[in-house]
Amino acid sequence: MDKSLITLDKGTNCSSWNYSGQRLATGSIDGTLAVFDSPELDSSAFTCTSRFKAHEVNIVKVVWVPPEFGDAVACICGDGTVSLWEEVEEDAQTVKWKLCKLFESNATQVLDLQFGISLTSLKMVTAYSDGHVKVYELLDPLELQKWQLQAEFQNVIDSVSTFEKPSCLSASISWNQQRGDSQPSTFALGFNSDLQQFNSSKVWEFDEAHQRWLPVAELALAGDKGDQVYAVAWAPNIGRPYEVVAVATPKGIAIWHLGLNPENDGRLSVEKVALLSGHEGEVWQMEWDMSGMTLATTGSDGVVRLWQSNLNGVWHEQAALET
Amino acid sequence: MPGRVSDSGDSLVPFSPEVRDPIVYHLQHGLKPPISRLSISWSRGNCLRVSFFRPSSSESDTENSNKEIGGKVVEVKLSSGDEEIDDAQKRKIAYGSVSPFALLQNRKNSILALSKMSMNSASYHVEWWQQVTEYSKEINSLLGNPKAAPTSVIEDPRTVVKTVEEPTCLKAAWELMEIFYADKQSHAWLPECLVDWLADYDSLLSATEATIHSKLVDLQKELVNLQAIEDDPRYWEGISSALAVGWLDIVVKLLRLHGSYQVDQLGSRETENGLVEAVAVLVSKMPRMRPELSRRGLGECFKTKPDFMKAWEKWRGHIAKLDCSAFWLKCDHRQTREGLRNLLQIMLGNTNSLTTATCNWMELYISHFLYIRPFTMGLEGMYSLAQRCMQLRPMSNTHRLMGLILGILGENTEVVLAECSREFGPWMVAHAIELLTAGSNQAEMLLHEERYNLGGISIEELHRLVYAQVLSSHALTWQIAPIYLTSCMKQGMGLLEILLYKQPVQHNRMLLKSLEICRLYELDSISTNLMKIAGIYHWKHGRKGSGVFWLQQARDEVRLNRIAQQLFDYVGKSISDDSLKQWEGLIELLGSEAKTAGGLEFLHKYRDLKKSLQKVQDGKASDAAKQAVESLILLMKNPSTPQRFWLSLMHDSLKLLNWREHPLLNVSQTNLLLNKLQELSIARLRPDFCESNLPPQALSTVRLALATNLGRAILEER
Fold it and tell me: Where do the WD repeats start and stop (chain A) (predicted)?
């Protein structure tokens, strides 16, 4: 049932598969970025095709840029900087990874970033350690060098609290991967911080008419709004009449249903349909399968758990992958 | 997504909610502990990849073998179905079932359309039956074919049990479904169908416990070693067991191995032999309520109940008569006497004898059909009989086929589905649903009802989606997933789009395959996207031509415009022949749809100029020079020529302006260029002027050349 694909270098810290699962990029504690490829289609033989020093400090997360914009990855470093690397071939022979853009960190660090495509442009949402969110937009679809800061805001709903500055340990962003042109760009974001109002996951939607981001839903019940958020994951929607978003907090993994269309007050209706417990301790990562029916999660207990809803809509742990 | 509709009050068939404990898998990554972190990622379908990372400063790194290993990436394929069948065979079945499935869907749609028009639901049902039966038989034949085994010419009389092809549980399960749901014609002789079924698949049940089949196999091994087999109780046990489940050919064959048949004994054991033969004849004359004989080929067939009853009574009469016969007293061989009379008891339907002769409740159940209640009864009656048999002959653990048959007899569609899904995997469910829905309106309602909890889809659609996911996870089967996805009314297309989006496009073959599927199902936006990804991939990897080609196919004006803009960078630069060729090629490519990219008109004209200039350089052909001048003037006159290139154009053409033989430009042409130059000088004063990267003296050089040319032209024109 399981087979080993790749042996990783010593010091490897994080990994990320590209859109088709044909390439793996890994980052390590000494700042090395390595890329593994499979020369044959669906061969399970992967070899390291590039290995280079991307940073002087450790890489904590690698994120692939959507393939419409090339073979490129963003690296988040331990010091909070972000670098964008792109694979190019000058004369169809020498493959080179070149640095396209460096987002330097000042006092604040980037904790998470995710790419989303809206209409034809590429957007990059970054979450900072001071509770700020910045949205960058790529100006030229052929050049990953040219980015423009499109918006900057805090992950709070009422503007009163924006005077305070939280200190955040981690953040999690997940885009609604809707490919339809008519849909507005939407993503969910939650923090793990010391200021309660920053934590709860909010759903942000881009208002094209006024060119601004608006919070359209909060994924926390009244008593849980201060819970630190470990991870959020927006499920692919292949035709459900509602969206599904998973949010992991110390209380467990909550499954939320979101209405597709805003109600009168502009908000989306939300319903918490399940609270799943299983992982002891922190949840590290949550990933939906391509149908949005199975949620895979992993956490500090070192177990991969698979969650599904049964025919009655009752969510349960379907399988556990232990080592 | 396995599971059942538990009792929520609104389900059709209520049963207690069942939340099963999660299945626990153990992953083998072969790394030494500790593991500091895990990372997960779904690949296509239900394929999950897990990365394991080891802490970097681990003290356990003393051994060389583990020194350089920082972690492992492991791929896990989840719920791909029956473990009993290997992957290659699974793929064969997957490919083979595509066309029966697709054909059935087609026919379903057309019959549905027809029946709506004529409103004749009766003909719809009849016709539908035939289609489903045909479908079922076709699928069945894919799962192996133990029936069509060649019989050897010279039969070893001692071979009683022949194993021709290893039967599989999957086929056994499918045949069960077929017997109960698809093959309505055989419902009149359902018991006999089950007798045949057990004959084919009894060996499967022995995986956990002894069965009649395993007993006979053991006996066969012994036959060679036994001198007087009729002395051995195992011989008689084997015969009675085989008789109990109706394997009449084996019974007769074994009886004829009886020692009394041997030539040297015939004289002394005449009565004994007569009795053995009498029983053998009775066995072979057993009336059967079925249209034709099976492979076990003995007995007499009757198609109607009255005929059968008459024959049955008569046959029973013969048995009773033989049972009371005085010959038994003359038979000296105790084992033969007792063995044969036990056989008579079995044929007379003695429950104790039947229970003793069988190994599990399924066999006992079949023996009941043969000797106690040889008629079709309602499923309810069959279910209670099964329960009684289970009490008489309990099995220590439930075989998966038994679970399925109980679900069928219990008329619980949900249990049947759950058993199919849990025990036989997504392929089985996706294909067997057709059989389930064909028979009953109730099942059809249950399986076709759209459920909010499932995201607005029916159970049928859910199982097709799940199966399509399994297909998607392998490079050799993803291409057939669209057949199943397009049969899903609500969410199939959504999943197909995601599946196509996840196909790697850098392999041309793969890209073309994906595009073909897009075309077939009219997924224009996805094909556009795939071509866009391919275009960018090639563009960024040095294959500019392919890049432009695919971007054009995708009609991606934004990116094509950007590419055209990049081509402008070449203007005014001295470039090598090779890159000029490449540049030319790109303009050529872009030009095939000139309207898609702005500024292309200029590039085309510029290319013409560049070409002529090159010819001028090569020789001194003045025709080429004239042509170059024309191109230059055309360019300079054209309002689409960007101002920033004016100087470059003229600088490139210096040679024309300084033509030695005679002035190439006439007065008005020279004036035009001079005016442009003047305009440029003024524009230079504006803050937004973009300085070209020509040498600083370029402007004055051009101005001088133009002035000289003007002078010469004026002189010439006089």
Answer: 276-308
- CATH of residue A100's domain is 2.40.128
Residues 395 through 454 of chain B touching chain A, CB cutoff 8 Å: 451-454
Contact between residue A187 and residue A125 where contact means Cβ atoms under 8 Å apart: yes
Q: Is the pLDDT of residue B549 over 70?
A: yes
Distance, in angstroms, between B662 CA and closest chain A CA? 43
In a domain? residue A139: no
> Do both A205 and A233 map to the same domain?
yes
Q: How confident is the model at residue B583, as a pLDDT?
A: 73
Q: What distance in Å separates residue A226's CA from the closest CA in chain B? A: 27
- Same domain assignment for residues A77 and A190: no
pLDDT at res. B80: 65
pLDDT at A242 over 70: yes
> Is the domain of A65 the same as that of A180?
no
Spatial distance between the Cα atoms of A203 and B333, rounded to a whole number of angstroms: 90
Residue-range domain boundaries for chain B: 23-57+68-77, 88-146+158-166+412-489, 188-395, 556-717
CATH number at residue A216: 2.130.10.10
pLDDT digit string, tens, across residues B163-208? 656 788 999 999 999 999 888 777 778 888 999 999 888 888 877 7
Report helix, strand or coil for B697: coil
pLDDT in tens, A165-181: 889 999 999 999 876 66
Q: Are both A39 and A75 inside the same structural domain?
A: yes
In a domain, A142, yes or no: no
> In this predicted model, what pLDDT tens digit does every residue of B635-648 receive, in sequence order?
888 777 777 788 88
Please name which of A215, A269, A220 lies closest in space to residue A249, comparing C-alpha atoms: A220
The C-alpha atoms of residue B103 and residue B108 are separated, in whole angstroms, by 8
What is the per-residue pLDDT for B484? 96
Instruction: Spell out which residues of chain A touch residue B5, defining contact as CB-CB under 8 Å.
Output: 310-312
Tell me if A150 is assigned to some domain.
Answer: no
Residue B638 Cα distances to B404, B584, B647, B702, angstroms: 81, 20, 15, 20
Q: Which of A12, A238, A304 sits opposite B494 (nearest CB)?
A: A238
Region A41-46 average pLDDT: 75
Query: Are A99 and A29 members of one domain?
Result: yes
d(CA B59, CA B248) in angstroms, rounded, equals 72
Name the A residues in 137-166 with CB < 8 Å from any B CB: 140-143
Residues A200 and A265 grouped into a single domain: yes
B9 touches chain A (CB under 8 A): no
What's phi and psi for B666, nearest 5 deg? -85, -175
Q: Which domain holds residue A32?
A: 1-105
* Contact with chain A for residue B5, Cβ under 8 A: yes
Percent of chain A with pLDDT over 70: 95
Claim to verify: residue A305 and residue A241 sit in the same structural domain? yes
Residue B16: pLDDT over 70: no
**Cβ under 8 Å to A: B residues 459-498:** 459, 462, 465-466, 469, 472, 474-476, 490-491, 493-495, 497-498
Is A100 found in the same domain as A115? Answer: no
| Residue A95 C-alpha, separation from nearest chain B C-alpha, in angstroms | 8
Residue B682 sits at the chain A interface (C-beta within 8 Å): no
Q: Who among A5, A70, A317 is closest to B540 (CB)?
A: A70
Q: Which residue of A has its CA nearest to B564?
A: A142
Judge if pTM exceeds 0.95: no
pLDDT band at B592 (very low <50, low <70, confident <90, very high): low
| Percent of chain B surpassing pLDDT 90 | 30
Q: Give the number of beta-carbon pairs within 8 Å between A and B.
A: 279
DSSP A192-222: EESSHHHHS-EEEEEETTTTEEEEEEE-S-G
How many domains does one find in chain A? Answer: 2
pLDDT tens column, A110-147: 999 999 988 778 999 999 999 999 999 999 999 999 99
- E strand or H helix at A24: strand A23-28
Amino acid sitting at position B55:
P
**What integer pLDDT is reported at residue B13 of this predicted model?**
33
